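Researcher: For the annotation table, I need structure tokens for S100 calcium binding protein A14. Please keep the output clean. Sequence:
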Amino acid sequence: TAELTDVERAIETVINQFHCYAVKGQKEYLTPNEMQELVVQKLPHLGKCVGPLDEKIECMGDPDEAKLEFGEYWDMMGDAAKGCRRKKTLEKKKKKQR
């Protein structure tokens, strides 16, 4: 079999982390608490640069009962990546203005 590209490995990692934090893969969703744990442990830098991620987790509802399915998780990861990219773009613009 062909070796995965860097991007394919990155996608595989995002998928595997979802299943790892979904109580050791026993279900197909994350609770807000599990999502927060994933962000703190696996995305310490990304989580810090993207405020709306924390807000979205808080808006999910009961931290032990609400359910974040994979599609929603994927969307949140995309939103986090976009937020981080925007922040880096702004930082570059500020440096150029100096």
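Researcher: And a one-line annotation?
Model: The beta strands are 29-30, 68-69.
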